[in-house]
Amino acid sequence: MKKNNEFYMKCAIAEAKKAGDLGEVPIGAVVVLDGEIIAAAHNLRETTQNAITHAELLAIEKACETIGSWRLERAQLYVTLEPCPMCSGAIILSRIERVIYGAKDPKAGCVGTLMNLLEDSRFNHQSEVVSGVLEEECGQLLSDFFREIRERKKAEKQRMKEQLMIDSEE
């Protein structure tokens, strides 16, 4: 079986689903080197209560450990959501060759939406960017996740309102 962008993005989506199962924002990432996945990770920010435990950073850290170097010069990073400024910085500093992402991030995307840090020639390294790979599927994971949160909050608000009514009748 030929491994292509869609194959690796499906692996990143599998990681994103692990995050969602934990109640994390469902974002997943894999690092590929010479056609093999050398690292995979998903968001853990809520679990760790640590702002920097984004999928990309965790995957980059694992990839560096795997190859024994901070330089990921021939590596590709597949991520379900467009990287934020923090993750874009780590991508530049780790010298990742190519970044392939699924859904755009209108609030924090720094790989084309708000700006494009990865292809900015003022930095000493640039990464090739491919966007929109399995975009609909990646975006749907996020849409479903946030819709469920809104529905839970609405239901909780309704329960509290009903409880207040019961309490006031007593």
From TrEMBL:
It is an enzyme of class 3 (hydrolase). Its cofactor is Zn(2+). Its EC number is 3.5.4.33. Residues 3-128 form the CMP/dCMP-type deaminase domain. Keywords: Hydrolase, Metal-binding, tRNA processing, Zinc. GO terms for molecular function: tRNA-specific adenosine-34 deaminase activity. CDD domains: nucleoside_deaminase (cd01285). It catalyses: adenosine(34) in tRNA + H2O + H(+) = inosine(34) in tRNA + NH4(+). SUPFAM superfamilies: Cytidine deaminase-like. Binds 1 zinc ion per subunit. Zn(2+) binds at residues 54, 84, 87. The active site is at 56 (proton donor). InterPro entries: APOBEC/CMP_deaminase_Zn-bd, CMP_dCMP_dom, Cytidine_deaminase-like, MafB19-deam, tRNA_aden_deaminase. It comes from the Bacteria. HAMAP family: tRNA_aden_deaminase. Catalyzes the deamination of adenosine to inosine at the wobble position 34 of tRNA(Arg2). Homodimer. This is tRNA-specific adenosine deaminase.
